[in-house]
Amino acid sequence: MYRRISVHLDHGFDCKRRTELALGLAKRHKAELVGIYASSAPPQYYYGESVMMSRTLSVMKDLQAQNRGAVQNAFLDAAAAADVPAIVRAGESSPSATVALYGRASDMIIVSQQNRDDVEAAHENEFVEQTLLSAGRPVMVLPSSGHFPAVGERVMLCWDGSREAARALADAAPLLRGASHLVVLTMDEGAATRNVEAIPFEDLVTYCVAHGMPAPDHVRRDIKGVGVGSTILNAAADHSADLIVMGAYGHSKFREWAMGGATASILKSMTVPIMFSH
Questions:
Q1: CA 190 to each of CA 110, 164, 196, 224, 225: distance values in angstroms, whole numbers, following the listed order
Q2: Rounded Cα distance, 13 and 41, in Å
Q3: Residue 64: left (phi > 0), alpha (psi -120 to 50), or beta?
Q4: pTM of the model
């Protein structure tokens, strides 16, 4: 069971959906919920006090404090109504650094997919990516559109035998034990991967069953002409998955960028919640 779950709080319109998802998971796991307030960076993050008049800076800080109070109170009220124990935390760093810092004392962190139309959301370049890379905890990302009343009933695990995939499986274990159906997706990425040594699928089945998870079904897809990201999302739709579990940034950040990495592709086009592990 997850015992402590963190959720990102900001002024964006997606904060309510994110909080509702977090409350549902916390209630199911009888976990404490930590609301981490991390909105736009404080004024001094952009400007030195020598540039802005100290009086103007003080006014901006006061406004931020008032807005933060409203967000935090709404979160605590929702948690109380759901009978979920909750606390709030807030930092002075950038949004991703704040969420990563306070989220490390949790079993999982919940954030939302970047939505450029949500102008009140935490505006920081690559907020989700930076959180994934620095938190050291599994991060569940909620798509910017769609309704997800149940998450974790029908789960699809992306498996390539890598360190990141193995960690993702272990990180998701508390959710997977409550799943009714588990699909393991492996992908044929061409000749370069066909001769790579891999563990037998039966060993993966044995591990899952030994840990109280459903015996997984095996699905294999050829990514030729489709791409990794689209293959994953298409398979999730075909199997009615309400959650995807996968490793994130298996290569260096630069190599992921140069190769048009699967993580970046998924984050742009995701259609269901995804739990990433790095």
A1: 34, 20, 11, 7, 11
A2: 18
A3: alpha
A4: 0.88
Tell me: the pLDDT tens digits for 152-166? 999 999 998 989 999
Residue 79 is inside which H or E element, if any? helix 54-81
Amino acid at the residue 244: I
Q: Which of 266, 101, 115 is nearest to 187 (CA)?
A: 266
- Tell me the two tokens of residue 220: 């294999």
Alpha-carbon gap, residue 34 to 90, rounded angstroms: 10
Angstrom distances, CA of residue 147 to CA of 12, 22, 151, 254: 17, 14, 10, 34
> Distances in Å between the alpha carbon of 95 and those of 10, 64, 90, 126?
9, 14, 10, 10
Is 268 strand, coil or helix? helix
Nearest Cα residue to 102 out of 92, 117, 114, 116:
92
Q: Which helix (H) or strand (E) holds 17?
A: helix 15-29
Name the nearest CA neighbour of 41 among 99, 111, 86, 104.
99
pLDDT digits (tens, 9 = 90+) for 47-101: 455 555 455 445 445 556 668 899 999 999 999 999 999 999 998 889 999 999 9
Tell me the C-alpha distance between 176 and 174, whole Å.
6
Token code pair at residue 46: 């952009």
